[in-house]
Design goal:
Length: 246
């Protein structure tokens, strides 16, 4: 009798976990919206850095630089929450989150590095290079690499998850776009330094925006899924024969 009751007890606990996971995805999406708002506000305030030629990191330098510093922390925290929610989501499946370990590791670099960027501001102008400016530059490169490779590695394994499999084509397409923007961000300056400097702000924002868009869209998809083991999913299989009989 106890053996028969255990599955029922675990099933009753499952919806709570799924509901909690879905709430976390909504938190992530809200934080991304906040990120966009703070970024625009920081851009509009003095000293009015150019969004076309100057990097987003420059916004953290100046009388209102603390807004961008807060936003760096916001980006790191929302990324950690997303990874935590994602691991919880796929952890209940047969293979667990093991196929996603590399993607989680790389996106963790993106998340942790974003917080470090808030502590070590960049140099404006870029030269001469200071100690904190050098740390910011190195960490920024790691953050960009972690974000680009992380979303691609995660999307590449979506097919190994029942809940994520339907979203793989879209997640892969957007992750490839992220990689393209990553190559543009780093490559244009080497191939055509003068042109690269004239559009450095645009290429950087396209890349950062594409990573955040990937996280937002995956969160949107997962926030609206019941998830394996929930009452909706568990009851969907026998529901069709019943309606067919009617």
């Amino acid at each position: 009798m106890n053996a028969e009751q255990r599955p029922d007890e675990s099933a009753s606990r499952t919806p709570v976990g799924r509901s909690h996971g879905r709430r976390l995805y909504w938190v992530v999406m809200g934080a991304i919206g906040l990120y966009a708002v703070l970024d625009v506000i920081a851009q509009l305030l003095p000293p009015h850095y150019s969004p076309v030629t100057q990097a987003e990191s420059d916004l953290a330098v100046g009388p209102y630089g603390y807004l961008m510093a807060v936003n760096f922390v916001n980006r790191g925290v929302l990324s950690v929450v997303f990874l935590y929610a994602l691991v919880r989501t796929v952890g209940a499946e047969t293979r667990g989150w093991r196929p996603f370990r590399s993607g989680v590791a790389f996106l963790s670099i993106w998340a942790g590095g974003s917080v470090v960027l808030a502590i070590f501001p960049t140099d404006v102008p870029n030269l001469p290079l200071t100690g904190h400016g050098a740390v910011h530059l190195v960490v920024a490169l790691l953050v960009f690499f972690g974000g680009a490779v992380g979303v691609f590695a995660l999307a590449d394994h979506f097919g190994e998850s029942d809940i994520l499999r339907p979203a793989k084509p879209y997640a892969m397409a957007l992750s490839i776009l992220v990689l393209i923007f990553f190559v543009l961000e780093l490559g244009v300056g080497f191939v055509a330094p003068r042109f690269g400097a004239s559009v450095a702000g645009v290429t950087e924002r396209l890349f950062l925006g594409s990573v955040l868009a990937w996280i937002f869209l995956v969160s949107w998809y997962l926030a609206r899924q019941p998830g394996p083991g929930s009452p909706t999913t568990a009851g969907s299989a026998p529901a069709e024969p019943i309606s067919a009989a009617r």
